[in-house]
Amino acid sequence: MSATDEILQRDCLVVDDSRVVRKAARRFMEGFGFTVREAADGSQALQACRELLPEVVLLDWNMPVMDGLTFLKAARAEFGNGQPAIVLCTTEIAFEKIVEALDAGAQEYVMKPFDAEILGSKLAQLGLLQAAA
Amino acid sequence: MTNDDFAEIAGVVRRRSGIVLTGDKAYLLETRLGPVLAKFGLASLGALGQRLKQRPDDVLERAVVEALTTHESSFFRDGKPFEHLARILPKLVSARAPGAALRIWSAACSTGQEPFSIAMLIADTLGPRPECRVEILATDISAEILTRARQGVFTQFEVQRGLPIRSLVKHFKQEGAKWRVSPELAAMVRFEERNLLNDLSAIGKFDAIFCRNVLIYFDAPTKTRVLDALSRRLMPEGVLYLGGAETVLGLTDRLVPVSGERGAYGISTQRAAA
Ligand SMILES: C[S@@+](CC[C@H](N)C(=O)[O-])C[C@H]1O[C@@H](n2cnc3c(N)ncnc32)[C@H](O)[C@@H]1O
């Protein structure tokens, strides 16, 4: 069985160095029916992806050890552009930063602070959730 | 506030806007009319009721309607109508008379997310220099909300509800913590104050009309009246989009559902000549 056959359909990886943010994101994602794994930086996240490629990664930008953009580029190089869907969730809200992340292969971009509604709306746009009526 | 005062305030709102406030909405008055009372130097809702009863006061009545109106909106709200419009756009363009503009109306546009979503969709579908002129008319009863809409400036929260990040980057400019629609987009939309209860014949006919999440606040006879008026603003091949909780069924036979497209309606062929 190849790695892609093992993809759990509703698996989400939350990558953030803040435990508080991870907890909030976990709560939102579990509310949407995802199982959630957590990583505290980019290198932990790469490791987690090698074990099992998640369907979607919520990715902070500024983290110790390996930051979000470095992870993003590494993940695209290693796993390709299709999977996982990568959604930046960050306080970096400058236009140039957003463009930089999109160019590096992010599918969506959430500017902190965010709530379940914003996250749900972004996931719906990516076709990962039914659009709320 | 006595029942009489409530009836007086609700009566003004209904007469001016069509919006029905039932008794269970009394809390809305309590929470939303505070600033109006302060602005007009009125001590209580009772005093407001009395004042409204004594003499007509256009400025005060406007402020009351304004305060009791829901302006909730978001970009590409409900998704489906916009997907449908994108699909039929080529057909609408080729159905126009030579030289005629493609005309789309956002009939209760609130803070502008709906007309700007339409503008983005058209810019993305037809390209920067479409072969035909495009006019997007955006109207609302509220002068105050239109002032905001015309600015085309949205908060970080607003641009994250329904708007794909690539559309944000493509069609908006960042201004501090806010986002402003591009001049190209702004130029596509004209905002005008219009009450759906008034005669609308002067605004002409449209290839598509968005009238969403406003009929829900009206009673059945008002819904019928507005739907009939909207049907007269539609080109023969035109499409009317209603909100998720709205329908024409049981209200008018001038409009019929577009089969397989929830929320989309066309002119009934039996009535097209009428
Ligand atoms: C909830 S918003 C809907 C905005 C947008 N169409 C959407 O679906 O997101 C309702 C809008 O209807 C407007 N409205 C209420 N009564 C109206 C009337 N009689 N004529 C025109 N607009 C009216 C309000 O001012 C408000 O901005």
From TrEMBL, chain B:
<keyword id="KW-0489">Methyltransferase</keyword>
<dbReference type="Pfam" id="PF03705">
    <property type="entry name" value="CheR_N"/>
</dbReference>
<dbReference type="InterPro" id="IPR036804">
    <property type="entry name" value="CheR_N_sf"/>
</dbReference>
<keyword id="KW-0949">S-adenosyl-L-methionine</keyword>
<dbReference type="Pfam" id="PF01739">
    <property type="entry name" value="CheR"/>
</dbReference>
<keyword id="KW-0808">Transferase</keyword>
<dbReference type="InterPro" id="IPR050903">
    <property type="entry name" value="Bact_Chemotaxis_MeTrfase"/>
</dbReference>
<dbReference type="InterPro" id="IPR022642">
    <property type="entry name" value="CheR_C"/>
</dbReference>
<dbReference type="InterPro" id="IPR000780">
    <property type="entry name" value="CheR_MeTrfase"/>
</dbReference>
<dbReference type="InterPro" id="IPR029063">
    <property type="entry name" value="SAM-dependent_MTases_sf"/>
</dbReference>
<dbReference type="InterPro" id="IPR022641">
    <property type="entry name" value="CheR_N"/>
</dbReference>
<protein>
    <recommendedName>
        <fullName>protein-glutamate O-methyltransferase</fullName>
        <ecNumber>2.1.1.80</ecNumber>
    </recommendedName>
</protein>
<feature type="domain" description="CheR-type methyltransferase">
    <location>
        <begin position="1"/>
        <end position="274"/>
    </location>
</feature>
